[in-house]
């Protein structure tokens, strides 16, 4: 499969994937960052996105601020849409255009690990240039563009968030991939496509935003052609998670609040949901546990440290300067209003200690929302109670 696509691999590999912030800061000027945030601010103003009020509404939906899981499930669409109105710009400038994790193999760069993680799904599906493929929960389309270049297939991505659709389609056009690769605004519980529309479907760390995986899998099953396959990396609680363990529950709640999730599901829930809607399960496993001699686990890049040039945005020093920088950009109207809004500290009982580092003092509110998610993810990764890459491979008969 890979040998037949050497040319596309060269065209789509690391240089086409955005770098994490530490590398971005090394390779771009402050002017480019201001230009990016200014463009984002104009786009958000055009769509009526108000970061300050959105973050208040978002916080009120979560347990750490008095919210309720059942209410979040019922209002999942508003929860997800509000979250990505707030987080998309920060994800892109701080992580890249592919909003997902990957274990890093020995000798790999961050870019290469992200790209390889995506190509693995294409290889397992055996995507051909003539195929029609659906990316279910595509963000701004980073994986969609990488796989579009690599395979030559026609790929349609769906996301609930209009801001992501506009941003992603602009990037597809800029990359010369439109209209073969495109984004559509849609709820993946109600896909706007006829039955048997796609040869293959994939999803990368997106179905976690659904209150019930079976509802998403049922729609994916419907739009797949007979004989087609669905592969995904799923965010899940592992079998090590215990509801009665305070640290396990804290990690779960921090992830839910920091990452826009209604309620975290287990690996068993995913397995059962696939069977429930009619899929034949080819394989499921926690890919985070795959052998990786000399490599790094997916959560290492998020681990707090005092000073590390390769993870500058996650250090105490980096956090301080980024908070100041975002506040200044907002004051100059070069970042969306509310980006630098201070948020209160969580109750002391919710302040985890990781690698000798306490949850940082209050900073810009959107950034602190993401920071809580970061700490919850590291806790879950270190304890083995959470995985962002529960791999599923299922077939429609």
TrEMBL record:
Domain spans labelled SAM-dependent methyltransferase Erg6/SMT-type: 83-397
CDD domains assigned: AdoMet_MTases
Classification via SMART domains: PKS_MT
SUPFAM superfamilies found in the cross-reference section: S-adenosyl-L-methionine-dependent methyltransferases
Keywords associated with the record: Methyltransferase, S-adenosyl-L-methionine, Transferase
EC numbers for this chain: 2.1.1.-
Protein family per UniProt: Belongs to the class I-like SAM-binding methyltransferase superfamily. Erg6/SMT family.
Name of this protein: Methyltransferase
Organism: Emiliania huxleyi (Coccolithophore)
């Amino acid at each position: 499969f890979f040998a037949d696509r050497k040319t596309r691999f060269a065209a789509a590999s690391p240089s086409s994937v955005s770098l994490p912030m530490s590398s971005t800061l090394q390779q771009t000027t402050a002017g480019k960052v201001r230009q990016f945030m200014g463009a984002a601010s104009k786009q958000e103003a055009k769509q009526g996105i108000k970061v300050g009020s959105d973050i208040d509404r978002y916080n009120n939906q979560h347990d750490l601020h008095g919210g309720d899981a059942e209410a979040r499930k019922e209002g999942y669409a508003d929860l997800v849409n509000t979250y990505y109105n707030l987080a998309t710009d920060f994800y892109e400038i701080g992580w890249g255009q592919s909003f997902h994790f990957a274990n890093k193999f020995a000798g790999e760069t961050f870019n290469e690990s992200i790209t390889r993680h995506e190509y693995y799904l294409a290889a397992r599906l055996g995507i051909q240039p003539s195929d029609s493929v659906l990316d279910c929960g595509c963000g701004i389309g980073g994986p969609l563009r990488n796989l579009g270049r690599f395979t030559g297939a026609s790929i349609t991505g769906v996301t609930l968030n209009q801001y992501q659709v506009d941003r992603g389609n602009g990037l597809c056009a800029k990359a010369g991939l439109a209209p073969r690769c495109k984004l559509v605004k849609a709820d993946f519980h109600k896909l706007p496509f006829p039955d048997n529309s796609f040869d293959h479907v994939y999803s990368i760390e997106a179905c976690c935003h659904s209150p019930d995986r079976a509802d998403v899998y049922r729609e994916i099953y419907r739009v797949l052609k007979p004989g087609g396959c669905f592969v995904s990396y799923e965010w899940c609680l592992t079998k090590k998670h215990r509801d009665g363990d305070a640290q396990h529950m804290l990690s779960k709640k921090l992830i839910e609040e920091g990452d826009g999730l209604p309620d975290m599901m287990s690996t068993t829930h995913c397995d059962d949901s696939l069977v429930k809607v009619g899929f034949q399960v080819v394989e499921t496993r926690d890919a985070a546990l795959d052998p990786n001699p000399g490599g790094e686990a997916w959560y290492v890049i998020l681990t707090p440290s005092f000073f590390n040039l390769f993870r500058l945005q996650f250090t105490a020093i980096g956090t301080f300067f980024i908070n100041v920088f975002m506040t200044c950009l907002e004051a100059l109207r070069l970042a969306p209003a509310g980006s630098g809004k201070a948020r209160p500290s969580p109750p002391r009982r919710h302040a985890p200690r990781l690698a000798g580092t306490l949850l940082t003092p209050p900073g810009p509110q959107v950034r602190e929302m993401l920071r809580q998610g970061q700490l919850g993810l590291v806790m879950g990764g270190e304890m083995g109670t959470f995985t962002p890459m529960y791999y599923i491979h299922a077939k429609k008969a």
